[in-house]
């Protein structure tokens, strides 16, 4: 079978592939260093935050990245067009990385995180929209192949970032690592700006063309931006409790989620069958939030565990500290995804031909069970390390990431497909917004749990890991037991509300 290449696809695919790869390089590079930087002593170039505060900031940042995708998509649709949104998003991400490199105190640090969140919110959803728009509606097979190439770029950037940025940051100073992400993103954005003309009309236009409509749109956008700026200044200058800020953000995400679903369910144009499908989406989104709350601990809990409790003497002679960088372990999961995605795709296809492919709810349940098993493995690793009075071997983290990646491959590739397939036509945008809200909620929880875990002594960790393992396994089993009912909800058909 011939392997697909860029020559088989529109020329714009390579432009978007490269842009997304650099964006993921910048984001995952920052994520790999962020909690290490915040919790390191001042003498080591860090901020010397306690782990609870650092975890809260990490959670707020990673959640904000996904929350900003909602206004970012609106701005592109209404005012900017996807092409300009991606350009401005890249500039903001690059500028934010450089801001993090400036030793200007807490306000500058938080401003850098805000700018990056805004940039990712502009770039990430809109570059994906343009990939889909490269292909005519009838070219579904080529579109699927194009997205496969595009997603390879995502994980290529995620794999390379911790190795490059992590090594620079942990070996030569965290701020140098942050500067590297800014320079890389600005370089990628310059490349995009120079050749984006090859995209043609894809993503160039926006909905609001009349001057009066655009004026009102920009006024609304400016008002929202000013409110956000005042909020971040208050958080930075007044030194608010970041754990309280994280709790407030969690309440906002919860209220938005309930509001989204409530508005859809109250729509009188939807019949009972469409409402059942919306309820099925709600259950699937809850599973996504729970899974992400465990998976995103790679940058918080697991990152701190790699630094403080993992034997990193392998290749340690090449580094002044006598240990290889803790951030290297952040590359393990993306590498697994690159290697195992084709295996999973082929496996699901083979099971489908035999009529044995599990339903989406069963796959979601399996992902949660695998997530729980990974935390049970962490509990065993810590227990053995405590019993023998030594740090944990690095192989434990590598096995943990394998289990979590297997779970990710059971939920990630089919999650968006399931939600878009179930969404009523008139509310497809809101249901896609629910995916981002679920991911934001999970990311926020991951940061808070990371701070809670990081504040524990090693001897107290096994019980905490076992608690998280229990939650994952019980939720996964419940999902599998309820899968029949969820499938029946999802199978409901309605003329006006359901997709074929």
Blueprint (SSEs and pairs):
Elements: H1 12-39, H2 51-67, H3 69-80, H4 82-100, H5 106-133, H6 140-172, H7 174-195, H8 211-237, H9 242-265, H10 272-295, H11 301-309, H12 332-353, H13 360-388, H14 394-422, H15 428-454, H16 461-481, H17 483-490
Helix pairs in contact: 1-2, 1-4, 1-5, 1-6, 1-7, 2-5, 2-9, 2-15, 3-4, 3-5, 4-5, 4-7, 5-8, 6-7, 6-12, 9-15, 10-13, 10-14, 10-15, 10-16, 10-17, 11-15, 12-14, 13-14, 13-16, 13-17
Strand tally: 0
Shape: globular
Number of helix segments?
Answer: 17
**Span from first to last CA?**
31 Å
Which stretches of 5+ consecutive residues score pLDDT under 50? 494-500
Helix fraction by DSSP (H/I, runs of at least 4): over 70%
Rg measurement, Å: 22 Å
Question: Please, what is the average pLDDT?
Answer: 86
The major beta sheet can be summarized as: none
Strand content: under 5%
Helix/strand class: mainly alpha
Order of helices and strands: HHHHHHHHHHHHHHHHH
Subcellular location: Cell membrane
Membrane topology: Multi-pass membrane protein
Keywords: Cell membrane, Membrane, Peptide transport, Protein transport, Transmembrane, Transmembrane helix, Transport
Main location: membrane
């Amino acid at each position: 079978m011939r392997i697909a290449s860029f020559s088989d696809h529109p020329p714009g695919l390579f432009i978007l592939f490269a842009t997304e790869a650099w964006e993921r390089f910048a984001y995952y590079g920052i994520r790999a260093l962020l909690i290490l930087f915040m919790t390191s002593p001042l003498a080591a170039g860090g901020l010397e935050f306690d782990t609870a505060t650092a975890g809260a900031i990490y959670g707020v940042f990673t959640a904000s990245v996904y929350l900003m995708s909602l206004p970012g998509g609106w701005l592109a649709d209404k005012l900017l067009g996807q092409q300009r949104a991606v350009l401005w998003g890249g500039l903001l991400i690059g500028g934010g990385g450089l801001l993090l490199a400036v030793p200007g105190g807490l306000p500058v640090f938080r401003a850098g995180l805000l700018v990056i969140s805004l940039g990712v919110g502009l770039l990430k959803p809109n570059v994906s929209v343009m990939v889909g728009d490269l292909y005519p509606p009838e070219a579904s097979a080529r579109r699927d192949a194009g997205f496969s190439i595009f997603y390879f770029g995502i994980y290529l950037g995620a794999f390379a970032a911790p190795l490059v940025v992590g090594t620079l940051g942990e070996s030569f100073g965290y701020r140098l690592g942050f500067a590297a992400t800014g320079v890389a993103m600005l370089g990628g954005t310059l490349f995009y700006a120079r050749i984006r003309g090859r995209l043609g009309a894809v993503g160039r236009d926006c909905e609001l063309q009349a001057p009066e409509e655009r004026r009102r749109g920009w006024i609304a956008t400016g008002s929202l931006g000013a409110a956000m700026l005042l909020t971040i200044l208050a958080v930075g200058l007044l030194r608010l409790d970041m754990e309280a800020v994280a709790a407030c953000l969690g309440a906002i995400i919860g209220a938005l989620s309930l509001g989204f679903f409530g508005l859809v369910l109250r729509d009188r144009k939807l019949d009972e069958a469409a409402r059942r499908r919306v309820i099925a989406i709600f259950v699937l989104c809850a599973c996504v939030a729970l899974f992400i709350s465990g998976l995103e601990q790679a940058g918080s809990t697991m990152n701190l565990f790699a630094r403080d409790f993992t034997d990193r003497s392998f290749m340690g002679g090449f580094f002044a500290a006598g240990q290889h960088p803790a951030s290297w372990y952040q590359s393990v999961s993306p590498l697994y995804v690159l290697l195992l995605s084709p295996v999973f795709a082929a496996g699901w296809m083979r099971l489908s031909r035999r009529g044995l492919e599990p339903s989406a709810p069963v796959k979601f349940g399996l992902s949660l069970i695998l997530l729980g098993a990974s935390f049970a493995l962490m509990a065993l690793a810590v227990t053995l390390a405590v019993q023998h009075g030594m740090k944990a071997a690095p192989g434990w983290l590598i096995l943990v990431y394998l289990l979590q990646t297997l779970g990710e491959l059971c939920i990630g590739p089919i999650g968006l497909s399931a939600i878009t397939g179930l969404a009523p036509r008139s509310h497809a945008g809101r249901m896609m917004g629910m995916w981002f809200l679920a991911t934001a909620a999970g990311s926020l929880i991951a940061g808070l749990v990371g701070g809670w875990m990081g504040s524990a002594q090693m001897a107290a960790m096994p019980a905490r890991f076992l608690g998280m393992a229990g939650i994952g396994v019980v939720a996964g089993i419940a999902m599998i037991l309820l899968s029949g009912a969820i499938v029946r909800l999802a199978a409901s058909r309605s003329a006006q509300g359901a997709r074929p």
